[in-house]
Design goal:
This protein has 275 residues and is mainly alpha-helical. It is 51% helix and 4% strand. The chain has a three-stranded antiparallel sheet. A hairpin with a 6-residue loop joins β1 and β2. The longest helix has 20 residues.
């Protein structure tokens, strides 16, 4: 009964055009919660059950995402008359921390000059196009529009199922010169493409081997920061390139503010004389 209900809910999610990655995560959340209940059943869960399960997750962002997944499922179940109450509605919201942006410094260029071409291409996609690991993993040769002026990169089915187009930096064009015109650019060992987890682990190891204490996702922070610098603080353009629906999200990736730089430079005009 429960497995059938989960499958029906996931079919509903697919009908709303949610990405395969989002549907997969929601399935994992529901199955994980069901296991935590030890045979009680999803439709008999209480708010206390939800809170107890969420406490097993160490990351606030994970707790926030899983709480959202459960809330969506129970809202659907109530609307379809499979359940009478939504236990998540009686739980407290998860407060998310606001971490500072973490762009990598000039040493990031070392990661572009060493290692296999495949790895350097992945580095460049994060650094010069702001792609997420999941977006790098599924990139196809047909997504590289190098014949256009300017050359463009199509990011398909990004986070939230959104497509976007990013202008290709000259370094990126050079690194992908001679790449296959169609088919997975980063094929998996057996079939299809590599996974997002594989890309993340590979890039993080590569950065550490290059003496850079950073994660794969910080390449995206670096892109956001450097594009904001070049755009003189135009967060609208940066948000579009990064695939953000809100500029507030973009601010979490940007470690430089053009307006504040100008303002700070103009402070204490007589400071030298006073010293």
């Amino acid at each position: 009964m429960t497995d059938d209900l989960i499958d029906r809910y996931l079919d509903f999610q697919r009908s709303r055009s949610f990405s395969a990655m989002t549907v997969k995560r929601r399935r994992q959340a529901l199955i994980g919660f069901e296991r935590h209940l030890h045979g009680v059943g999803l439709l008999d869960a209480t708010a206390e059950d939800v809170e107890a399960w969420l406490r097993t997750k160490s990351s606030p962002r994970t707790r926030h995402a899983y709480r959202s997944d459960l809330a969506g499922f129970y809202s659907w179940a109530v609307r379809r008359h499979h359940a009478t109450t939504n236990p998540v509605a009686d739980t407290g919201s998860i407060r998310l921390p606001k971490p500072l942006p973490r762009p990598i410094g000039p040493e990031v260029h070392v990661a572009l000059m060493t290692g296999p071409l495949r790895t350097r291409r992945m580095v460049a996609l994060g650094m010069y196009a702001g792609l997420r690991c999941a977006e790098i993993a599924v990139l196809d040769g047909s997504d590289l529009w190098t014949h256009r002026d300017p050359p463009l990169l199509m990011v398909r089915d990004g986070k939230g199922g959104k497509d976007r187009v990013v202008a290709m930096h000259p370094t990126l064009v050079e690194l992908f010169h001679g790449a296959q015109p169609a088919g997975p650019l980063f094929p998996g060992r057996e079939r299809g493409t590599v996974t997002a987890g594989t890309v993340s682990a590979l890039l993080s190891r590569h950065l550490h081997r290059c003496g850079i204490d950073a994660t794969a996702h910080q390449l995206r922070h670096t892109f956001g920061t450097e594009m904001t610098r070049a755009a003189r603080g135009n967060l609208v353009a940066v948000a579009a390139a990064m695939g953000h629906g809100s500029m507030q999200t973009t601010r979490g990736y940007v470690g430089w503010d053009g307006d504040s730089a100008v303002i700070i430079a103009a402070m204490f005009p007589d400071g030298d004389e006073a010293a």
